[in-house]
Amino acid sequence: MTLAEPPLLALHGVGKSFFGVPALADVTLEIGAGSVLGLVGENGAGKSTLMNIIGGVLRPDTGQMELAGEAYAPLGPGDATRAGVAFIHQELNLFGNLTIAENIFVGDFPRRAFGFVDRPAMRRRSRDLLDRLDIKVSPDTLIEELAPGERQLVEIAKALHGDARLIIFDEPTTSLTARETDRLFEIIERLRAEGRTLVYISHILTDVMRLADTIAVLRDGRLVTDGPQRDFDIPKLIRSMIGRELKQLFPPRSALPQAAPVLEVEGLSQPGIVKDVGFSLRRGEILGLFGLMGSGRTELARILFGLDEASSGSITIAGRRRGATRGLRPERSIRDGLAFVTENRREEGLMMEASIADNVALVSLEAYARTPLRIVDRTALGGAVRDATATMRVKAANFDRQPVKSLSGGNQQKVVLAKWLLNRPTVFILDEPTRGVDVGAKYEIYTITDHLAAEGNGVLFISSELDELIAMCDRILVMSRGEIWGEFDRKPFVREAIMHAAFRDNRPLDSAADPAPGSAP
Amino acid sequence: MHDSGTIPESAGRAEAPGGVDGEGVEPRTSAAAAHTTGLVRGFVRRLLLSEYFVLWLMIIYFLALLPFLPSLSNPANLANILSNVWPLLAVAVGQTFVLTIAGIDLSQGAVVGLTSVVLGMLVATQASPEILSNASIWGSILTEEGGLFNGLAFAVPAAIAVMLAVGAVVGLFNGVAVAYFRMPAFMVTLVSLIVFSAFALWITQSENISDFPPGLVSLGKSPIVSVFLGAAAESRVLRRELYPIVTYPMLISLALAISAHFLLSRTTFGRHVFAIGLNRKAAEISGVPAARVIVLVFVISGFCAAVGSLLYSTRLETGMPSLGQGAFLLDVIGATVIGGISLFGGKAKIVWTFLGVLFFALLSNTLNLMNLSSFHIDMMKGAVILSAALLDATRRRIMAREG
Q1: How sure is the predictor about A132, in pLDDT bands with cuts at 50, 70 and 90?
Q2: Is residue A389 in some structural domain?
Q3: Is position A48 within any domain?
Q4: A248 exposed, middle or buried (CB, 10 Å; 0-12, 13-18, 19+)?
Q5: Same domain, yes or no, for A397 and A467?
Q6: Of A400, A423, A446, which one is at a domain's C-terminal end?
């Protein structure tokens, strides 16, 4: 690509506010035809807002856009599609219950006489598109039967079907394996060679450095810097993103674990899920739980919290012992002092449409209710909610009215943490707490985790990122096929030994949950 | 951080007919001449987005029709509208709880019919064998000497207690099926609707049970406070010049609505109801006893339907198995949704329900005053509910866009 070519898309002073808070201000940017623009920024920097404006989902409050020299003001996503702009979302927008071909054609089914859908034509065209992307599955396959990486490719096929000139990728690799990621990168290279223009948004800076021709950095809704890829390196990108030098990726641990156990698990088994799992977690300890996808980490957490059953075994929380076999409910676990930050904020962690305050209050309502009618003491609860959100440093304009869906991923995660903190638990189960969270917010979450441990709580830290476990944990347990397959003490941790334990069955490397070691710089 | 990618269906909606997308807000025109249109548009938008949109709509509707239907503002007519509000409000309050957990209760109509019969068969002071001797309850519960409780000291309160309990038990059945057996509310309550309607018709062989005791009749009819709008010098006040404002049905229904308001907005139970409607999985992980809350919500719905039935039955002085059939569900769900209660759960206020019911009563009344046939009235009501749904969808689109 050459920057001498006229830009395909030009933005002039584009801005947008939500609830009176600017999410994007005065962005002026050109995207060269046939080039890849890498767009980086912390969560909440305005990347998604900018892309939603380009994709026609949102309309800008200020500024204009030009596409290939003509004024471009899409009134909706349909307009953008017709103009040749395709948006491949973080959460894929495919219909699981329809076939690949139906998904590709969902906007414009080919017709034959009397309005019947021309299925053979649909299949032929889909077959062509899939071949171009080297996808070796039938166009009649249902989307729900595909792996995440294949679904992504179907999205790309759909974009190609619409003959998109500009394709926007929003965090495309979050749910892909290493092999799928490599294939995606090949395809991106090929699309560029075909003369298409791409925008690539990612937290994984090494990927951005590898793919992009030009890079733009957003911070607090403003374009901080942009230029050719060769002008950047990863430290410079991080500096521009967070506006200061980030000397450390992880905070130091501030206290040592105490001797007293706060969570003891014995002989926990459930056929096909977990097998004879036993461990103990001490006060003030951060205990890492590492394993590949499907090793049973999340399943174990769900059993500990009383969401799923085990056929045998027992769990002792702060000295209160209970059988794990049946009749356990989250209500009981919460009373006993457990907190569970799930790996999936959107589906299991938050009420996306509800306000920040309502979300934070949910777990602790009973504690602020007065008998006999269980009327909620709104003043006391409101004060406690404000304290908890302040402790977590949640950034928002209006805690009582702003829905959590308007927050960035990092702030959403802090709302989840605030919700549990308010209930003063003694054991925190954190399942992938930094997933989909940017560098700055990650550091804050690590600091909070250290704080929780220093106050004498036990933390069970589940993660696929070995780097963060090695940096934050006192001990690391490795799970494999539902069993604890290794226990490692900090003296210090030996990375290779831990990986070895996780791969005891020599599975191919690309089934590792997140094998890219440079994901966080 | 944006809502565009939450669920596939939102994508479907966004991509659907391209033309619809543009209607909400027109693209900004540049000239300063557009200032006044901008003001008008801003006003319309504020009106559309107002939480009490129905209230404004109702006032506009009332004032717009007044020149054509002068009798609309007659005190007698206004009192009549109010009297139609109270029973419907009681039922709609119950429906509000169910809609808030993203469920639906189709069985309320059947509960109204069934509990009406239960009341009649317990309190009737006499019963005519020519009409009722074929009924399945004839000879056991209902005889020529009247209902089972006739002649007992506390016949009326006991019968009311039984009818309310029957409503609650139907709700309990629905709730257990939905919460513990994970059956869809639509299915379960549709079955309840069919079964309990048929049961009510069977035990009476479709006949009405009349002859209510005078105490019960006065509950439905006698005013507590009436307004007289005649000359002060008048020595004798004619009954038809008295307009009942405060009535027993009003007190009962308002008491129910106010308690429901407190329950929904101030208690942990209410917060749990909203949480389940917004995200059941997240609610359960946060310790909300979802199954228990859902059962209770359906019990409330059945109970409220029984209260509504009490008000209808005493007004008609009859235990009617066919009460609550036909377009009744349209009235209940239509009024609730017009008020602004979301069918998708998690968005509700009892005040909205009240306004929706008020609007519905006003609508029915004006259609009656226009001397339309009942067929036309139902068609009109359908059209109004459709436009309300359309307006609601437009509002949501504007709100989504404005952020």
Answers
A1: confident
A2: yes
A3: yes
A4: exposed
A5: no
A6: A423
* Cβ within 8 Å of B, A 119-178: none
Same structural domain, A198 and A141: yes
> Which domain range does residue B218 map to?
51-228+240-402
A48 — contact with chain B (CB < 8 Å)?
A: yes
Contact with chain B for residue A419, Cβ under 8 A? yes
pLDDT at A5: 60
Report the pLDDT value the prediction gives residue B267, as an integer from 0 to 100. Answer: 94
Q: How far is CA A351 from the centre of its chain?
A: 17
Residue B220 burial (CB count, 10 A) = 20
Task: Please tell me which residue, A327 or B94, carries the higher pLDDT value.
Answer: B94
Q: Which domain holds residue A333?
A: 261-337+425-511
The whole-angstrom separation of Cα B303 and Cα B309 is 10
A461 & A399 share domain: no
| Higher pLDDT, residue A326 or B248 | B248
Contacts of A339 in chain B (CB under 8 A): none
Residue B218 lies in a domain: yes
A344 located within any domain: no
* Cis geometry, peptide bond prior to residue A271 (ω within 30 degrees of 0): no
- Note whether residue B37 is domain-resident: no
Q: Which residue of A has its CA nearest to B10?
A: A93
A51 and A153 assigned to the same domain: yes
3-state DSSP assignment of residue A315 = strand
CA distance to B197, B201, B287, per residue, from B142 (Å): 19, 15, 48
What whole-number distance in Å separates Cα of residue B352 and Cα of residue B338? Answer: 8
Question: Which residues does residue A111 pair with via DSSP β-bridges, in sequence order?
Answer: A117
Looking at the complex, does the CB of residue A81 fall below 8 Å from at least one CB of chain B? yes
Say yes or no for a CB contact (<8 Å) between B274 and A106: no
What is the pLDDT at residue A49? 86
- Closest residue to A94, CB basis, from B1, B8, B262: B8
User: Residues A471-521: pLDDT tens digits?
Assistant: 999 999 999 888 998 899 988 888 778 877 876 644 444 444 443 333 333
Q: To the nearest whole angstrom, how far is the Cα of A94 from the nearest Cα of chain B?
A: 6
For residues A513 and A422, the model is more confident at: A422
The Cα-based distances of B232 to B93, B223, B228, B229, B237 in angstroms read 40, 21, 9, 9, 10
Q: Confidence band (pLDDT; 50, 70, 90) for A419?
A: very high
Angle value at C-alpha A140, between A135 and A141, nearest 5 degrees: 65
With a cut of 70, say whether residue A326 has pLDDT above it.
Answer: no
Count Cβ atoms below 10 Å from residue B365 Cβ, excluding itself: 18
**Does A93 lie at the interface with B, CB-CB under 8 angstroms?**
yes
Q: Do A351 and B287 touch (CB under 8 A)?
A: no
The DSSP code for A505 is: T
Position B60 in a domain:
yes
Q: Quick: pLDDT tens for B340-388.
A: 888 888 889 999 999 999 999 999 899 889 888 888 888 888 888 788 7
Residue contact B346–A369, C-beta within 8 A = no
Q: Do A340 and B283 touch (CB under 8 A)?
A: no
Instruction: Say if residue A368 is in the same domain as residue A455.
Output: no
Closest residue on chain A to B18 (Cα): A78
* Residue A516 domain-assigned (yes or no): no
Same domain for A429 and A372? no
For residue B9, pLDDT over 70 is answered with no
CB-closest option in A77, A346, A348 to B14: A77
* Same domain flag for A444 and A479: yes
What's this model's pTM, rounded to 2 decimal places? Answer: 0.74
B134, part of any domain = yes
Task: Provide ipTM, 2 decimals.
Answer: 0.80
Nearest neighbour of B268 by CB, restricted to A19, A376, A412: A376
Name the domain count of chain A.
Answer: 3
Are A166 and A184 found together in one domain? Answer: yes
Query: What is the domain-level CATH number for residue B212?
Result: 1.10.3470
Q: How far is B213 from chain A (nearest CA, A)?
A: 36
A73, A346, A376: residue with CB nearest B266: A376
Q: How many domains does chain B have?
A: 1
Alpha helices in A133-230 (DSSP H): 148-161, 178-193, 205-211
Percent of chain A with pLDDT over 90: 27
A363 touches chain B (CB under 8 A): yes
